[in-house]
Specification:
By secondary structure, the chain is of the alpha+beta class. It contains 13 helices and 22 strands. The strands form six sheets. The protein has a four-stranded mixed sheet with strand order 2-15-17-16. The structure holds shikimate-3-phosphate (S3P).
């Protein structure tokens, strides 16, 4: 579906967004593992989290979605049951990778599959540490889905130094390790999002910039009630649209402000963005608060290498902010972008070239120079990637004659309500 966007005049209003996608996946998984009833409020309504819910239903868990809350009756340790059919993770890397850790500890066979995009994404990054733990898990010859996981006979604790800065890999190890009496120790030299650790009460210590994460059966989940704060990654599209629009002011309520996720707020503020945080509170072990944004003139700054894992999902929309900021936008050390829902370096460069910009594509990033030269009949390509679709929807709303985005329906992967939210604010 090609979606057309007109140039907007301004952004005004108050936005309540569905819950953070990363926290929602984990809430559904941990509630399914715990023994007894858990309640989740403000769960993400994304297709990705629906994939996680469908899979746990297939594994024998009762999940009641009703009105404001989701009730999950978890079956406890060894309570999951074999699925008659393959477990389809759709577009969701978090579902496939975290699930593989859980299934490595079960007494039955499983097969994890995914859509065309997920089937191209690397899985050896989880297969390698899980095999070191004694898991019997195979990827395809290309190191991709389907993942075939055989019954656990020999799972054991390990000490593991993370090779890639990936919360999905870290969480896969954690979710196998919660099934073991002995302690698994993970060392992380670049911090990645720590929702799993917070939700499972896992002990972490930082020494000489290395985070040491100690996990065992003591961290196996118990039933819980949780209200999930709004998704900062979804919020960032509205933050950038507001910053770059004239006479605009937006308040986004109760957003997750976990320090492993707020790099985008810090960067946009350093670029000159008028962003204020109000009503900060702690909710279920996660910091959250309201974000108030006003129109601002931005300037490009250096993006430090160590912030990349913190902003990895926000790079598409950050580059839109960079395009309208003084100076040139440049990002490096971001090779992980090539293996997201699309090759995001390629997707971004392709679309910026449509505008007639000078684009320098590098192996681990890209640079944008010059001014927008083409502004008529613009059709951007989302490559079926939700964050590319939303980034270029925002850009379309900022250029003289508007623009269109192809395969716009992919936004449902993280935010099915994007269009209604835009209508409400613009
Ligand atoms: C996620 C971790 C990140 C992120 C993804 C969600 C998670 O992936 O890009 O959207 O929920 O753990 P990596 O950890 O593989 O970088």
């Amino acid at each position: 579906m090609i979606q057309q966007f007109e140039k907007i005049k301004s952004v005004k209003g108050v936005l309540n967004l569905p819950g953070d996608k990363s926290i929602s996946h984990r809430a559904v998984m941990f509630a399914s593992l715990a023994k007894g009833e858990s309640v989740i409020r403000n769960c993400s309504n994304s297709d990705d989290v629906k994939s996680t819910m469908n899979i746990f239903s297939q594994l024998g868990i009762r999940i009641d979605v009703g009105g404001e809350k989701i009730k999950i009756i978890g079956k406890g340790f060894n309570g999951l049951k074999i699925s008659e059919s393959e477990l389809f993770a759709g577009n969701s890397g978090t579902t496939a990778r975290l699930l593989s850790g859980i299934l490595s500890a079960q007494k039955f066979n499983s097969v994890i599959t995914g859509d065309e995009s997920l089937s191209l994404r690397p899985m050896l990054r989880i297969v390698e540490p899980l095999r070191l733990m004694g898991a019997d898990i195979n990827a395809s010859e290309l190191g991709t889905l389907p993942l075939i996981i055989y019954p656990n006979r020999n799972l054991h604790a390990i000490e593991y130094k993370m090779k890639v800065a990936s919360a999905q890999v870290k969480s896969a190890i954690i979710l196998a390790a919660i099934h073991l009496d002995e302690e698994t120790i993970i060392y992380e030299s670049t911090r990645t999002r720590d929702h799993s650790e917070r939700m499972l009460g896992i002990k972490t210590e930082v020494q000489n910039n290395i985070t040491r994460i100690v996990v065992s059966k003591k961290n196996y989940p118990q039933p819980f009630e949780i209200t999930i704060p709004a998704d900062i990654s979804t919020a960032s599209f509205f933050i950038v649209l507001t910053l770059l629009s004239k006479d605009s002011e937006l308040l986004i309520k109760n957003v997750s402000l976990n320090p492993t996720r707020t790099g985008i707020i810090n960067l946009l503020s350093s670029m000159g963005g008028a962003i204020e945080i109000e009503n900060e509170i702690m909710m279920n072990g996660e910091i959250c608060g309201d974000i108030k944004v006003k129109s601002s003139q931005l300037k490009n700054i250096d993006i430090p290498a160590e912030i990349i894992p913190n902003i990895i999902d926000e790079v598409p929309i950050l580059s839109v902010a960079g395009l309208f900021a003084d100076g040139s936008f440049k990002i490096n050390h971001a090779k992980e972008l090539r293996i997201k829902e699309s090759d995001r370096i390629k997707s971004l460069c392709y679309n910026y070239k449509i505008l007639g910009l000078d684009v320098v594509e590098e192996d681990d990033g890209f640079e944008l120079h010059g001014n927008i030269k083409n502004e008529t009949d613009i059709v951007f390509e989302s490559f079926g990637d939700h964050r590319i679709a939303m980034a270029f929807a925002v850009l379309s709303m900022l250029i003289k004659n508007g623009g269109a985005v192809n395969q716009f329906e992919s936004v449902a992967v993280s935010n099915p309500d994007f269009l209604e939210q835009i209508k409400q604010l613009c």
